[in-house]
Amino acid sequence: MSSALKAAGTQAAGGGVRPSRRAVALTTGLLIVFLLYSLAPTWFLLVASTKNQTDLYSTFGLWFSSDHLADNFRAVWEYHDGIFARWIANSLLYSTVGAAGSTLISLAAGYGLSKFPFRGRGALFAVIVGASLLPSTLLAFPLYLVFAEVKLTNTVWAVLIPYFINPFGVYLGKVYADSSVPTELMEAARIDGASETRIFLSVALRLMRTGGITIFMLDFVNIWNNFFLPLFMLNGERSFPVTLGLFSWVQQAQQSRDMNTLVLTGSLLSIIPLAVFMFSLQKYWRSGILMGSLK
Questions:
Q1: What is the three-class DSSP state of 192?
Q2: Distance, CA of 176 to CA of 182 (rounded, Å)
Q3: Which of 2, 101, 119, 242 could share a disulfide with 91, CB 3.0–4.6 Å?
Q4: Would you say 159 and 98 are in contact if contact means Cβ atoms under 8 Å apart?
């Protein structure tokens, strides 16, 4: 009996159950392993970016041996007339505009599904949930065929338009509309003579701000890391996002080992905007994700 109580935990003074030391130690150990596993690629990029071409192959891969970080940064920015800066700018454009359009459409669609009853609403929502389960890589080639028919391949719109449609964002928009926009407030606004458009823009969007920021953050990160859609749609390196640009460097590195340092340093630089973006919005996405999970 006593061993069972120890395994389950000890009774705290306040009436709660406190986990045993073994459970705490096991959980802490698993979290540390997960943390190391998650940070290992970034650590490798940081270490590799400080090495020159010789040290990259002759020294231990997970520890520093020389300090060529500034030289490597300069080489990345100056290579091919500063093409890397153009790729970063393209990624910022695609991610910002694509995420903003997707967020607005997702909130509007989710708000409509939540607050306006109509025939077939349940079936439509089921289709949206099912569509959110489809992997984006599966849709890249069909989307290319569609945009090829309308002569939009190798344009900015070939990348942005697919990003505007996000079934998972619509699902989140409905969740946040259900929990954040009281129906009584909408009725009061209608009595005051406000149109449905004004209610959505002036009332609903403000109440769904936390949800909108969460959707925007998820879309921004997803678009920044997207590789297959630009691979199918774009064929000029001046329009590449940073993911596709680094891939073109990887292909060159297969023929010339001198490119490996550029690829590794460029990969490190490419994650800095994402890190800044995540830290700047952390107070919003923490509460937003928590609200969605509770719902």
A1: coil
A2: 11
A3: 242
A4: yes
Query: Is the torsion defined by CA of 26, 27, 30, 36 positive or negative?
Result: negative
For the cut 80, the answer to whether the pLDDT of residue 150 exceeds it is yes
Contact 86, 238 (CB under 8 A): yes
**Distance from the Cα of residue 204 to its chain's centroid:** 24
At 132, which amino acid appears? S
Tracing tokens 């996002």 back to the chain, one arrives at 241
What distance in Å separates the CA atoms of residue 32 and residue 135, rounded to the nearest whole number?
Answer: 30
Residue 137: both structure tokens together:
């890589």
Parallel/antiparallel/unpaired status of strands 17-18 and 10-11 = antiparallel
Give Dmax over CA atoms of the chain in angstroms.
75
Residue 11 host element (H or E): strand 10-11
Q: Which amino acid is at 258?
A: D
Say yes or no to pLDDT of 13 above 70.
no
Q: In whole angstroms, how far apart are CA 180 and each of 170, 219, 255?
A: 15, 21, 55
Which residues, at least 6 apart from 210, have a Cβ–Cβ distance to it below 8 Å?
A: 176, 180, 284, 287, 288, 291
- Give the model's pLDDT for residue 135: 86
Alpha helices in 9-82 (DSSP H): 21-48, 53-58, 69-78
Q: Which residue segments constitute the domains of the chain, with CATH numbers given?
A: 76-294 (1.10.3720.10)
pLDDT surpassing 80 at residue 228: yes
